Amino acid sequence: MELQSNPQLLWFIGIYAILMVSVGIYMSKKVSNSADFILAGKSLGPIVLMGTLLATWTGSGSISGGETSVAYSFGIIPSLLLMIPTVIGIFILYIIAPKIRAFGKYTISGILEAKYGSTARNIASVIVILAYVGIVSYQMTGLGFILNITTGMSVELGTIIAAILIIFLAMIGGLRSVSQTDAISGFLMVGGLLITVPIIISVAGGWDTIVSNVPESHLTSTGGLTTIQLMGYLIPSLFLLLSDQNMYQRLAASNSDRSSKKAAISWLIVMLLISPAISIIAFTSRSLFPDIDPGMALMATTTALPLGVGGILLAAAAAFIITTGNSYLLSAATNMTYDVYGKYINKHPSDKQQLLMTKVFIVVLGVISFLLISFFPTVLEVQMYSYTVYGAGITPAILAVFFWKRVTAIGGISSMIAGVITTLVWELVLQTPFEINSSVISVPVAIIVLIIVSLITQKHSNVQS
């Protein structure tokens, strides 16, 4: 089938954008202080909380990278396996949600500082900002590509539109407005994907026709990937989710422990529905459009669907991307305000100053994210890099805070440094040898360093005492 853009699809994007901006402006009027802006006044109930968790986690990484690229490039089974990290991650977050709320910190760096000291906070802040700016950047470019392939709009213009929407929605009302727009977007996503699956299979001629049109390797359990290469796609998302500051902030913003647990369970159930839907749509796209960029697999199907269905799917995809982008941008700006500005520039800021600086940092980091796009050729590449820098640098240390009493400050800090350095060396210096994602190397290194250094320094502490 020939891929042809349809400018009429722009109407659906326009309606979605107007709705999101209107909700954002309305909710911004309810922001009275920095706590409202960053943690929504700890007022989120289970439904809105579930929606914002879902929308934040499932963005361009799923629509243009993750499940989509893997299903198109390697097959349906490897793509379905990407659900495993999400299921494990949500289950662990369900367990530790009350502890996260009890800490009451605005950033993941604050939790690490409470356990390991100010050095850990500084390192974590750098890691969060580096990773989150990368994540925001591929949300922008992801929407740019989507608008190009579906409506004919230039990638450059589409990316600029994405950047403006993401920055504006993050800045206008913080988590107070982002959580509401996330919830609306989350339900739009679920509906759009579930409606699309049976229709696109029918358009493609049925499942037997789809299977007959894809390479034989795409029907195997690994899709031609080695086990180590496959693990390189599974590990980064798990280790990002387990310590994702966005998720911690949202759980901390819930109105009770019960709400946070209800939201986590609902989030898990919905993910079990939409992750396979994304995989099936992208796999079907391989049959329909065998020569397109893998990152465009899901969005290409909007041009083959009836206008109404294609428009709903396009709006749902835009929802995934914009809500993820503004959430990560808000989170990174929070780090800049509390971990840089509040610690080194103005140690006694007023609440008004904190609120103002968070909005300023949203704009600054948003512009940097936009400029970063040119350094990464594909969404999947920057996704894996960003996930791994964060997952290896933060997750082992943060999980030890909740699950291992014997961890020491030196052990936690050493683990963070080892995870980041190993990732950067593997990705940037060695240029990803054997096409193995750095997470396969850097995460085990970070865990081993955490354990060994903690045990050694603990022994020394015992001897000195």
From TrEMBL:
Protein location: Membrane
Assigned keywords, A-Z: Membrane, Transmembrane, Transmembrane helix, Transport
UniProt keyword annotation of Transmembrane helix present: yes
Chain segments annotated as transmembrane: 6-27, 39-58, 70-96, 123-147, 153-175, 187-207, 219-242, 263-284, 296-322, 360-379, 385-404, 411-430, 436-456
UniProt xrefs under InterPro entries: Na/Glc_symporter_sf, Na/solute_symporter, Sodium:Solute_Symporter
Protein's UniProt keywords contain Transmembrane: yes
Pfam assignment, any one: SSF
Its membrane topology: Multi-pass membrane protein
Family: Belongs to the sodium:solute symporter (SSF) (TC 2.A.21) family.
Protein known as: Sodium:solute symporter
Protein's organism: Gracilibacillus marinus
